[in-house]
Design a protein that fits this description.
364 residues, six-stranded antiparallel beta sheet, 8 helices, binds adenosine-5'-diphosphate, binds magnesium ion
Length: 364
């Protein structure tokens, strides 16, 4: 099911005298392609849940429209939209068994949609099998692990074969290992069912790893939409560049001049076509630092952390916006000292430059 958000806006009145209105979602325009998994990503309070609740029908927009396929569903009540919802706190009924929890949405069907007992059981078992909890049907939620409870919640959302599946931070209550495992599960389930899915998270790793497309939001405004790798490599502004990537991108005060990029006196990039002369923010991805005796860029190393797969050089530099910062050093490259000055060459593809005022990207 293709989902179209057209000028979608949700405004809440400001609380208290002279408090400005809050635009929880501001003029969101996007066509979610059929059968894709979309990661809606941004810091807390940026409007992710509001967007999801607008799609589900739990919240009514102030302006704009929502279409499922060609159907305008803007005025359609939530229960008639055919969406499956999963929240962070699994919201299972504690006194019901797993099977009864999954059956619950089916038992509430009325009129011509009503199913026979056999048909309901068949659907409940199919949904349970899909999320691999079919062995646990007689247990109560309190007898399940967090990961299993979240699977039950997903099965309950899937049992009516929704047109759209909406997941609001579904992994936040799980420990690190289960989070990894469950996010792969969600990807598998989405692939198997082909249900158009919107997955909300504030965790960029999570969004990047399972989404076909990510939407990066801030203060109700969409900043960028694209394939995860594309958005990482080619962010439109400093906010997006900083929000994606762990460790985060390292930002410096710098200057562009004659197609070259300088941090202090060091030239870290040359051969650009941009002929502007101005002070800029220069941002370098942590994996862009290559230790190299004749490297132009000299940083002060305070420590090397060995991670196994690679190591982190904890460095500082007088032009860095925040110190210390982390450079990721691959195992082929060695830093021969424990601390002190280290020379780096910077990989050209890992340097991004931004306007100091607007924080918009400047192409080199
Ligand atoms: P997120 O899920 O990204 O953390 P939300 O969508 O929950 O963010 O909230 C976006 C903004 O809208 C926040 O500033 C929040 O305070 C505000 N907001 C959300 N719901 C309401 C409400 N019912 N009344 C007033 N303001 C709200
Ligand atoms: Mg939220």
């Amino acid at each position: 099911m293709q989902v179209t958000l057209s000028h979608l806006t949700k405004k809440y009145p400001g609380r208290g005298k002279n408090a400005p209105d809050v635009y929880a979602v501001n003029n969101f325009d996007f066509v979610i392609p059929d059968g894709k998994l979309i990661g809606l990503l941004g810091p807390s309070g940026c409007g992710k849940s509001t967007t999801l609740n607008l799609i589900s029908g739990l919240v009514k927009p102030t302006e704009g429209k929502i279409f499922f396929g060609d159907d305008d569903v803007t005025e359609l009540p939530a229960e008639n939209r055919g969406v499956g919802l999963v929240f962070q706190n699994y919201a299972l009924y504690p006194h019901l068994t797993v099977l009864q929890n999954i059956l619950f949405p089916l038992e509430n069907l009325k009129g011509k949609n009503k199913l026979s007992k056999e048909a309901m059981l068949e659907k409940a078992h199919a949904a349970a099998k899909l999320v691999q909890i079919d062995e646990l049907m007689e247990r109560k939620p309190s007898e399940l692990s967090g990961g299993q409870q979240q699977r039950v919640a997903i099965a309950r959302a899937l049992v009516k074969t929704p047109r759209v599946l909406l997941l609001d931070e579904p992994l936040s209550n799980l420990d690190a290992r289960l989070r990894l495992q469950t996010r792969e599960e969600i990807r598998r389930i989405q692939n198997e069912t082909g249900i158009t899915t919107v997955f909300v998270t504030h965790d960029q790793d999570e969004a990047m790893s399972i989404s076909d497309l990510i939407v990066v939001m801030k203060d109700g405004v969409v900043h960028q939409i694209g394939e995860p790798q594309r958005v990482y490599d080619d962010p439109t502004n400093l906010f997006v560049a900083k929000f994606l990537g762990t460790p985060p991108i390292c930002v410096f005060d710098g200057r562009i001049s004659g197609g070259k990029v300088y941090i202090g006196e060091s030239c870290v990039y040359e051969g650009g076509k941009n002929t502007e002369e101005k002070d800029v923010f220069v941002a370098i991805r942590p994996e862009g630092f290559v230790p190299c005796d004749d490297g132009e860029f000299v940083c002060n190393l305070s420590r090397v952390e060995v991670m196994g797969r690679d190591s982190s050089a904890i460095c500082s530099h007088e032009k860095a916006i925040s110190n210390p910062f982390r450079a990721i050093i691959s195992t082929e490259d060695v830093i021969n000292k424990a601390k002190g000055d280290v020379n780096f060459r910077i990989k050209p593809s890992k340097i991004l430059v931004f306007d100091k005022k607007t924080e918009e990207r400047i192409r080199l």
